[in-house]
Amino acid sequence: MQNITLKMSRTYIACGLIILFLQACGSNASLPTPQPVSLSTPTSTLTFTPAPFTPIVMSTATSMPMPNVARVLIISFDGLRPDVIQTADMSNVMALMQAGAYSLSAQTIFPSLTLPSHTSMLVGTCPAKHVVRWNEYVPENGYALGTDIFDLAQAAGLKTIMVVGKEKLRHITEPQSTDFFGFVDSTDKIEDKVSLETMAIEQIRKGFDLMFIHFPDGDLAGHEYGWKSKEQLFAYKRDDEAFGLLLEVLKSRDIFADTLIIISADHGGHDTTHGTDSSEDMTIPWIISGPGINHKKLETKIYTIDTAATIAFALNLSIPVEWEGIPVYEAFGLPANLLRDEACTGTP
C-alpha cells in the first residue's frame, strides 16, 4: 500500500510540473485533472505453503567387500616346513590347499622361535613392539604388549578359544581375552596329542567365534630326531589325522561351510634346531580356506604378522593402527600387494 501511495504522489508532482511548464510557454492546452485511484481491500489472502522437506541420503560405500565369515579357526603346526607337507602325506592340509588359497613361501619373524613367532602371528607386530623375545614359560614376564586378535574379538563380544601344546603360549594374551585356554601339559610329550585333540573337539562342540589350535608334535620330533626325519614325518602325519577329525566335527555340526580356516606354522627348522635367519628356519606355509576364498597360489608377500590382520578383516574388526601386518587381500579376490617391504627380518 505504501508503494502505491508513493507512486501516486510522484504522478501528481509530475503533472503539476508539466502544467507549469505549459503555462510558462503560453500554451492554452489543458490537461485532465487526475482522479484519485480507489484501492480495494483484497478479499482473499495468499498463503505460502512450503514444500515438504526431503532429506538427502548420501550413499556410504564400503572401501572393500567383506567376506561372509561366521567364525575363524587358526591351526598352527609347530615347526612345519612347507616342503614337509607333501612328504609327510598331510592329506587334510593338502585338501584345504586345493580348496583355498596358499603360499609356500611365507616368512616368519627373526628370531624364528616358537613363542616370539606365535606372538607376532596373533598380535600382528614384530618382536620390537610386542617385546616377547623369550622362548620359555616365565609367568613373571607377563604378556605381550599391544592389542592382540583375542583382545579385538573379546571387545566385539566374540567367543575366543586357545588350545595349545605348549604352556608358554599363554604369554600371547591375557586370561581375560580368552573364554577358554587349554594346554596339553608342561612336559610337551608327543603322546599328549590325543588329549589335545579331545580338548579341541570338546571346545568346537561348545561353539566358538575365534579359535586357535597348536599342534606341537612335529617340532618336538624335529628337536629329537631331526627335521624331515622319518620320526618327524610320522608326527606330522598324526597331527594331520587329528586335524581331519576336527574338520569332521565342523561338518557334523553344519558349521564347516561358513568357517574360515587358516593353517600356518611358527617356523621351520634344520638339523635338530631352528632360530636362525636361514630359509629353512624362516619359510613357513600359509593356507586359507573358507567363505569367499578361491583356489589359487598367492602372489602376495606374506609374513606371519599378516595372520592377525587377515583374521580381523574376515571378522569385520577394526585393525589397530600399531599393527604392522596387513590383511592378505588377494586371498579374498582383491588386488595383491606385490610391492611390500620386508617385515620383521632384521634385529628384533
* Number of domain modules: 1
**Could you tell me the radius of gyration in angstroms?**
38 Å
Give the % helix.
25-40%
Strand content: 5-15%
CATH H-tier superfamily: Alkaline Phosphatase, subunit A
Looking across the biggest beta sheet, what order are the strands in?
4-3-5-1-6-7-2-8
Counting DSSP H or I runs of 4 or more residues, the number of helices is: 11
Question: Which CATH class?
Answer: Alpha Beta
- pLDDT averaged over residues: 84
Shape summary: globular
Helix/strand structural class:
alpha/beta
At the fold tier of CATH, the topology name is Alkaline Phosphatase, subunit A
- Terminal CA distance reads 88 Å
**How many DSSP-defined strands?**
8
The main β sheet shows up as: 8 strands, mixed
Q: Give the low-pLDDT segments.
A: 1-62
CATH A-level architecture: 3-Layer(aba) Sandwich
Order of helices and strands: HEHHEHHHEEHEHHEHEEH
Could you characterize what this model shows?
The chain is built from eleven helices and eight strands. It has 348 residues and is α/β, with parallel strands linked by helices. It has an eight-stranded mixed beta sheet, sandwiched between helices.
